[in-house]
Amino acid sequence: MNYELKKIDLFSAIKISFLVNAIIGLLVGLLIGLIMMVIMGVAGSVMPYDQMDYGGPDIGAMGMFGGFFIGILYALLIAVGNGIILTGIVVLLYNLFAGWLGGIKLKFDKIPDETVSQTAVSQSTMDNTGGDSTNA
After folding, report:
1. How far apart are CA 32 and CA 37, in angstroms?
2. Which helix (H) or strand (E) holds 3?
3. Over the stretch 47-78, which tens digit does the pLDDT of each residue have?
4. Residue 91 in domain
5. pTM of model > 0.85
6. Which is the most buried residue in 53, 87, 110, 118, by most CB within 10 A?
7. Three-state DSSP class for residue 110
8. How far apart are CA 60 and CA 40, in angstroms?
9. Terminal alpha carbon distance of the chain
């Protein structure tokens, strides 16, 4: 069976891409946040608050909470940027070019039902006879 993919639905492609990119972005973002949390915690212990001249907040405390928020922000940016904007552009371009040049051709082979049913019948026969095909 030969098929041709002529059009991709924009909304369905975007919602799947958004979800996948949000999950990947969250995992990568939390990893980056964890690394930033460790780095900022080390920087805070090496350079305590009372020795800082700039009068800003404690770097160690920022590292603990900042790492988590960096992960969430990264996931949001990846999900929106890649999941919605880039996927939308790619789908629109695909639909445009597929209209002009033709879509991607796909070939599917049908698996015969006979093979599956024969295997199931032979398995059930083996189970009923206890694995022995002789009736003695």
Report:
1. 8
2. strand 2-5
3. 665 555 555 555 555 656 766 777 778 778 88
4. yes
5. no
6. 87
7. coil
8. 5
9. 49
